[in-house]
UniProtKB/TrEMBL annotation:
Gene Ontology BP, a term: base-excision repair, AP site formation via deaminated base removal
HAMAP family named among the record's database cross-references: UDG (MF_00148)
Protein name: Uracil-DNA glycosylase
Signal peptide residues on this chain, from the entry's feature table: none
Organism: Maribacter luteus
Highest taxon of the lineage: Bacteria
Length: 221
């Protein structure tokens, strides 16, 4: 079975695409997209991988579920299509960047500009039915994306993982802490941010400090 994913990811993930769970997942997703409106558009399901090739990935940010409103999800966690109103979590991400790095708040919420610099913006679940949050959870996506994290942990070194919120923090058990760097904080959602668990984490400057120490180009957030 052929999966349309960026070429460099095919070898580290080659066994996944032949696994029974993945074949069942593909069947489920095809049926959902056939009978319901689903997001992101089919060609963008693997956009996170398309923009950040395996060997060029330097930073991994883990989200949970794609946005489920019209024209929002573009295959990258926390990101929205150009011209779409910024969701609350993304607003808080940009506010933290503004405070941390002094960068002006951007007009576009499209994070392809991060992904193209080697930031893998990985949702645990890569698809969703319109207006039904979590509707494609526990269908196999989490198995796949957990194995993506394991492959990065095993085959790469000195990746910076940003784990925001309880769900993402649980993924730390998949990461070899002797080889990689993990930064954790509360989630940027208003509920968490307003309780003081997000603002002031300085993850963006901290990530760039780590990248510079490793001789890598920092991210232009």
């Amino acid at each position: 079975m052929t999966v349309s994913i960026e070429e460099s990811w095919k070898k580290p993930l080659e066994h996944e695409f032949e696994e029974p769970y993945f074949k069942g997942l593909v069947k489920f997703v095809k049926e959902e997209y056939l009978h319901y409106t689903c997001y992101p558009p089919g060609k963008q399901i693997f956009a996170a991988f398309d923009h950040s090739p395996f060997e060029k990935t330097k930073v991994v940010i883990i989200g949970q579920d794609p946005y489920h409103g019209p024209n929002q999800a573009n295959g990258l966690c926390f990101s929205v299509t150009d011209g779409i109103q910024h969701p609350p979590s993304l607003i808080n991400i940009f506010k933290e960047i503004e405070a941390d790095l002094g960068k002006p708040y951007p007009k576009s919420g499209n994070l392809e500009r991060w992904a193209d610099q080697g930031v893998l913006l990985l949702n645990a679940t890569l698809t969703v039915r319109a207006h039904e949050a979590g509707s494609h959870q526990r269908k196999g996506w989490e198995t796949f994306t957990d194995n993506v994290i394991k492959a990065i942990s095993k085959e790469r070194e000195d990746i910076v993982f940003l784990l925001w919120g309880g769900y993402a923090k649980k993924k730390s058990k998949l990461i070899d802490v002797d080889k990689h760097h993990i930064l954790t904080s509360g989630h940027p959602s208003p509920l968490s941010a307003n309780r003081g668990y997000w603002f002031g984490n300085k993850h963006f400057s901290a990530t760039n400090t780590l990248l510079r120490k490793m001789g890598k180009t920092p991210i232009d957030w």
